[in-house]
Design brief:
This protein is of the alpha+beta class and 125 residues long. It has six helices and five strands; from the N terminus they run H-E-H-H-E-E-H-E-E-H-H. 25% of the residues are buried. Keywords: Signal.
Length: 125
């Protein structure tokens, strides 16, 4: 493995290492040209400031490539039982699955779900 790649992978935490620190939105698609993936990316691009304020990290699994975490794609697919088609999963800071969809999440659904979480409510006080 080239040194720069090893350093980049080491700098990015695994999903497990983010537990209790970050909420995670896993966005999985078979290919970069998947229409649902493109739509979810468009929604998230407009919602970026809100995502940051809610301690949300986006982890994309596109084919065998993972962005946002250093886990291997195969390991994440097994752990979260990801099908070969588009899937989005919202993981809470406690590591539990909060939402799962075969369609892109609207920003309002992500916002409402996260804002209702006990750790989010505690952080707003």
């Amino acid at each position: 493995m080239p040194l720069l790649l090893a350093i980049a992978l080491a700098a990015s935490p695994t999903v497990a290492q983010m537990k209790w620190e970050r909420r995670i939105l896993i966005v999985s698609a078979p290919a970069v040209d998947d229409a649902s993936l493109t739509e979810q990316q468009r929604i998230l691009a407009r919602w970026k400031t809100n995502a940051a304020a809610r301690d949300l990290t986006i982890v994309e699994i596109i084919g065998d490539t993972v962005r946002g975490a250093s886990d291997p794609a195969a390991a994440l697919r097994r752990k979260y039982r990801l099908p070969a088609s588009f899937t989005a999963i919202l993981i809470g800071k406690d590591g539990g699955e909060k939402l799962r969809s075969a369609k892109p999440f609207p920003a309002a659904a992500l916002e409402a779900t996260i804002d209702a979480m006990p750790m989010r409510k505690a952080g707003q006080r």
